[in-house]
Amino acid sequence: MLFRAGRNLIRSLIIVGCAGFLHAERTAAADLSYPVKGPVVAPLPPSWAGFYVGGQVGYGMDSVGWRNLGASAFFSPPGSLTRDHGGGVIGGGQVGYNFQFNRIVFGLEGSISAADFDRSLASPYFPATDVWSSRITWLSTVTGRIGYGFDTWLPYIKGGLAVANVDTSIQNTAVGAFSQSSAVHSGWTIGGGVEFKIAPKFSLGLEFMHTDLGRSNDINGASSIGTPENYGVAARSNSFMARFNYLFGR
């Protein structure tokens, strides 16, 4: 009697053990079939941050105005304003640094370019004998930039300080009289452009800049024949340039 009861107990324990083992196997198989995924990490936007250096070349147009501030009427009536428009090639280099917050890109840039915005015109007062000439020979800027990075594209706006050299002259060919000056003007500039990454560390771009160099009392003294001449000279320019940059950031 006792032997039969013990045998039944052992049989029950074996059945329970087998059932538990099968349940554990099924649970492990379910865990292997449905792995737990970790949190999804959002990809970082391409970086424009860091130093960059490059070059630029393009075409520019200027507008120069002479205001007769003196009493001499040898070249033009006192108080008159004479305007000249010219244009030519502009090209140079730039260096800057970008900061980046998510897709907002901002930074500072400095540039210097040689220019050949040259023009001469016959005087509107004495066209048979007088020639007025102007030329912007170089232009330098220090600007702030801010843009938005669309992966490999970066549209931006910029603005800041501009400095340039302006040569001017007024000449009377009949008697060989002339007044001339070469002066540095300072003012402001504003514009914008777009850059495109052709490789992780190289970008190409297009840019437009409007520059106002203010007015300076450039011609102030006796002409070559002694007439007292006093002219305020104002200059503005617009330039369109193609650019390339090497990016030192990642």
Description:
- This protein is mostly beta strands and 250 residues long.
- It is 13% helix and 65% strand.
- The chain is built from one helix and eight strands, in the order αββββββββ.
- The chain has one helix at 2-33; strands at residues 50-68, 81-101, 104-122, 130-148, 153-172, 177-199, 202-222, 228-247.
- Strands 1-2-3-4-5-6-7-8 form an eight-stranded antiparallel β-barrel.
- β6 and β7 form a beta hairpin.
- It is elongated, with a radius of gyration of 38 Å.
- Mean pLDDT is 86; it is low at 16-22.
Count the beta strands. 8
Strand content: over 45%
Helix content: 10-25%
Based on helices, strands and strand pairing, what is the structural class?
mainly beta
The Cα radius of gyration reads: 38 Å
Strand order of the largest sheet: 1-2-3-4-5-6-7-8
Largest sheet: 8 strands, antiparallel, barrel
End-to-end separation: 85 Å
Average pLDDT score: 86
The helix-strand sequence is HEEEEEEEE
Q: Which runs of at least 5 residues are low in confidence (pLDDT < 50)?
A: 16-22
Q: How many helix segments?
A: 1
**Principal-axis shape:** elongated
Oligomer: single chain
Concise synopsis of the structure shown:
By secondary structure, the protein is mostly beta strands. Helices cover 13% and strands 65% of the residues. It has one helix at residues 2-33, and strands spanning 50-68, 81-101, 104-122, 130-148, 153-172, 177-199, 202-222, 228-247.
